[in-house]
Write a structure and sequence with these properties.
With 266 residues, the protein is mostly helical. The chain contains 11 helices and no strands. The radius of gyration is 41 Å and the shape is elongated.
């Protein structure tokens, strides 16, 4: 196929990286884990853009919801206003998907490597993982340990989706967590090493989310325009009391000296 021929250089690069890790003493399964870590390190610039985009989306979420509410009856107008809002505030909603999209070619290249992995490794090579998964190049549903690996994948996928969908509403978040579980029946047909790759990248995303929440400053809540409150009424001054006339001074009663009978007046 044309896609496989285009990815041939990337397939060769992934195979070379696996062999180099194996040369330094890593088993083949752990070489897949190390390769996953290298891929995620290379994607750190995209991851930083993803984090900034998520923070910006979270910061402006109330304003975007207001636009959606205002134009809910006209979807075309709503999309135009949202795109205008994105440009004015330097928001790239697609940035949150960049690391996932960038990993997809690596995922396909690793699948191509594992599909004929026994041709690239010596006969009798140890292809187990933790002595639980016997063969990382075999289908995940070919052994009971593969189902255990799928359970780990499901748990790690839910956790990584939890950190990746912080700016989504509850309905979208629930869908993003349920959809990976639906694809388990498809993923079970992939080589176990490919599931191991995805488990590793999910755990990286979880650790990245935990570190981001601790180190990155929290986005302040937007200041909503508060309703104008009527100024508090000042207490009305009490009416001035009319001055009361001063009470007239009461003169003390005059003492009248009585005359004594038969005597002179004193």
């Amino acid at each position: 196929m044309i896609l496989f021929s285009i990815l041939s250089p990337l397939e060769n690069a992934v195979l070379w990286l696996l062999k180099e890790f194996h040369k330094i003493g890593l088993p083949w399964a752990w070489a897949i884990v190390a390769t996953t870590v290298v891929v995620r390190i290379i994607l750190v610039p995209l991851t930083v853009r993803q984090i900034h985009s998520m923070q910006s989306m979270q910061k402006h979420a109330p304003e975007m919801k207001e636009i959606q509410r205002k134009y809910k009856g006209d979807r075309q107008k709503m999309n135009e206003e949202l795109m205008k809002f994105y440009r004015e505030n330097n928001i790239n909603p697609a940035a949150s998907c960049l690391p996932l999209v960038a990993q997809f070619p690596v995922f396909i290249a690793l699948y191509l490597v594992l599909r004929h992995f026994t041709k690239h490794v010596p006969a009798g090579a140890d292809l187990s993982w933790l002595h639980v998964v016997p063969d990382i190049s075999a289908r995940a549903d070919s052994h009971w340990s593969g189902y255990l690996l799928l359970v780990i994948y499901a748990g790690s996928q839910i956790l990584s989706t939890y950190f990746m969908s912080a700016t989504m509403d509850k309905a979208q978040r629930a869908i993003m967590m349920v959809v990976p579980l639906i694809f388990i029946t498809v993923i079970a047909r992939f080589p176990a090493g490919l599931v191991l790759y995805w488990v590793t990248t999910n755990l990286w995303t979880v650790g990245q989310g935990l570190i981001t929440r601790r180190l990155m400053p929290k986005t302040p809540a937007p200041a909503w325009p508060r309703r104008a409150q009527a100024p508090a009424k000042k207490p009305e001054p009490e009416p001035a009391k009319a001055p009361q006339p001063a009470k007239a001074a009461v003169a003390p009663p005059r003492r009248v000296k009585r005359r004594k009978k038969g005597g002179s007046r004193r």
